[in-house]
């Protein structure tokens, strides 16, 4: 796909170090963005980078080095540094030489798209954003408003001494709309149009994300929330829209199930996990309605790919089935450390970071309830949309989340808006109170653009999808409590 990266890969074969095993990951990264805030165009963003990550195995040691110097001399220096680290780690490594993954696949993967980013000229993108700004500014109560449109393209060539040659090209579309309303001491925020719902694909994704058509409705909701009642307080039924399920899945299923976190690798930075190795295969994570998959098969999701960054084939797997915890989110290296099955989720965010266990596409599978039936079954509760705030402990167990918008549910009907809706719980019991899962009609693809983890830090794209979900006996409260 990328002639330049492929030519470097061919040249590297001639100078590759004489080691037990090596891999070379060559990357081209392109990112562009335009935005308009309060009717004023902001500075355009353009970023392009090339880089390489080289990993070697010598005896029982492994080492890696990254470089942006893709000349033969630059790659030789990186190889020397990686070999030095491998020799130093030989007596203190976690694994033996035979445990390191040795990929040999030959494959290509590319994001399917119908309308490329560059099909729309820059002036048309700016006009689109200006029109969205006009639609957002519906009254003097709107005190801040903005529209954003971003694009990314990552091209990767991965080769190994075992003969692997994997080429992948990912293209991302990242739109968002936001409106801030204020009246006296009350401020409310609404977002949408792709906010926290970025996708792979081209400009054809904009219509599917309701961009920019959602602008006027979001502004109306922000203004209406200024005079809405505070969210009620107490134990009650809770219905979460897919836009909030993204955060719930991410924080209380995804992070605690990352295998390197379970093993303690993240303890001093991003925390540990309440999950232990002996739970897999028997622990009841949620009610029988909870089915969670690692699924690279939704090509429009942010973390769809053919192979992970250790060269492992990506295949759909159940993480939780009928409420029972089945397997962790661990790539091939972590699997070797624990002798446990995992998934192809060893990922590196950028060219100068090593692959570590990361969430990818982590989805709650649809059930058989319509959203109307779920609402009709509830006597007293609250419906919530779109995350606004989050807090969770270091073991990813106790949490407290706030949402942008809520609606009271009374006697099976959605009633008026409530502002500052919040809820809290414990991961170990919250999911066991799952009472209904929406069907495919409410199943929505979304994701997280900036999941941070690792030392040095890596900010990476994560895909999530879910239908609407109903939970019982949840501690709900408003902003005044």
Architecture overview:
The chain is α+β, with helices and mostly antiparallel strands and 481 residues long. It has helices at residues 3-15, 72-89, 122-136, 205-208, 215-226, 242-254, 259-262, 332-338, 371-376, 427-430; strands spanning 21-37, 40-41, 45-58, 61-67, 106-110, 142-160, 165-183, 186-192, 199-200, 229-230, 234-240, 292-294, 317-321, 324-325, 346-347, 356-357, 361-364, 380-392, 398-410, 413-419, 422-426, 434-437, 444-453, 458-466, 469-477. It has 10 helices and 25 strands. Strands 1, 2, 3, 4, 5, 6, 7, 8 and 9 form a 9-stranded mixed sheet that branches. Strands 14-13-12-17-24-23 form a 6-stranded mixed sheet, with helices on one face. The mean pLDDT is 96.
| Backbone shape | globular
* End-to-end gap: 56 Å
Q: What structural class is derived from the secondary structure elements? A: alpha+beta
Average pLDDT rating: 96
**Number of H- or I-type helical stretches:** 10
Largest sheet features: 9 strands, mixed
- β-strand number: 25
Relative strand content: 35-45%
Give the low-confidence spans. none
Rg, rounded, reads: 24 Å
Quaternary structure of the protein: single chain
Helix content: 10-25%
Task: Detail the topology: elements first, then pairings.
Elements: H1 3-15, E1 21-37, E2 40-41, E3 45-58, E4 61-67, H2 72-89, E5 106-110, H3 122-136, E6 142-160, E7 165-183, E8 186-192, E9 199-200, H4 205-208, H5 215-226, E10 229-230, E11 234-240, H6 242-254, H7 259-262, E12 292-294, E13 317-321, E14 324-325, H8 332-338, E15 346-347, E16 356-357, E17 361-364, H9 371-376, E18 380-392, E19 398-410, E20 413-419, E21 422-426, H10 427-430, E22 434-437, E23 444-453, E24 458-466, E25 469-477
Parallel strand pairs: 5-7, 10-20, 11-18, 17-24
Antiparallel strand pairs: 1-2, 1-3, 1-6, 3-4, 6-7, 7-8, 7-9, 11-25, 12-13, 12-17, 13-14, 15-16, 18-19, 19-20, 19-21, 21-25, 22-25, 23-24
Helix pairs in contact: 3-5
């Amino acid at each position: 796909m990328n002639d330049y990266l492929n030519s470097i890969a061919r040249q590297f074969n001639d100078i590759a170090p004489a080691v037990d095993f090596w891999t070379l990951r060559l990357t081209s990264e392109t990112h562009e963005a335009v935005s308009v805030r309060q009717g004023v165009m902001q500075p355009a963003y353009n970023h392009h980078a090339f880089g390489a990550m080289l990993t070697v195995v010598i005896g029982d040691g492994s080492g890696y080095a990254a470089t942006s110097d893709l000349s033969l001399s630059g790659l030789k220096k990186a190889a020397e540094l990686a070999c030095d680290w491998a020799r130093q780690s030989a007596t203190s490594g976690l694994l033996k030489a035979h445990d390191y993954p040795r990929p040999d696949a030959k494959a290509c993967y590319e994001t399917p798209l119908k309308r490329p980013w560059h099909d729309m000229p820059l002036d048309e993108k700016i006009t689109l954003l200006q029109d969205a700004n006009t639609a957002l500014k519906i009254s003097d109560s709107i005190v801040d408003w903005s529209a954003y449109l971003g694009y990314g393209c990552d091209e990767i060539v991965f080769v190994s001494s075992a003969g692997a040659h994997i080429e992948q090209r990912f293209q991302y579309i990242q739109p968002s709309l936001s409106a801030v309303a204020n009246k006296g001491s009350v401020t409310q925020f609404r977002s949408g149009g792709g906010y926290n719902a970025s996708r792979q694909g081209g400009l054809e994704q904009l219509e599917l994300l309701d961009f920019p058509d959602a602008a006027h409705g979001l502004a109306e909701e922000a203004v209406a929330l200024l005079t809405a009642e505070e969210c009620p307080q107490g134990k009650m039924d809770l219905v979460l829209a897919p836009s909030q399920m993204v955060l719930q899945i991410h924080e209380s299923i995804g992070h605690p199930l990352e295998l390197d976190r379970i093993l303690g690798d993240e303890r001093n930075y991003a925390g540990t996990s309440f999950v232990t190795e002996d739970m897999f295969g028997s622990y009841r994570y949620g009610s029988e309605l909870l089915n969670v998959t690692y699924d690279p098969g939704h090509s429009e999701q942010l973390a769809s790919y053919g192979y992970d960054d250790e060269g492992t084939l990506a295949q759909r797997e159940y993480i939780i089935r009928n409420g029972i915890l089945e397997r962790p989110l661990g790539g091939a290296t972590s699997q070797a450390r624990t002798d446990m099955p995992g998934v192809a989720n060893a990922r590196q965010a950028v060219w100068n970071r090593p692959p570590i266990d990361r969430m990818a596409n982590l989805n709650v599978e649809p059930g058989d309830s319509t959203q109307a039936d779920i609402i009709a079954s509830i006597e007293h509760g609250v419906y919530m949309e779109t995350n606004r705030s989050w807090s969770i402990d270091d073991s990813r167990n106790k949490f407290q989340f706030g949402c942008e918008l809520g609606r009271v549910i009374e006697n099976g009907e959605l009633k008026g808006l409530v502002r500052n809706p919040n809820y809290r719980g414990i991961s170990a019991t919250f999911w066991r109170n799952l009472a209904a899962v929406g069907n495919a009609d409410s199943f929505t693809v979304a994701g997280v653009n900036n999941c941070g983890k690792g030392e040095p830090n890596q900010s990476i794209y994560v895909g999530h999808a879910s239908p609407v979900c109903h939970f019982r006996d949840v501690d709900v409260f408003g902003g005044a409590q």
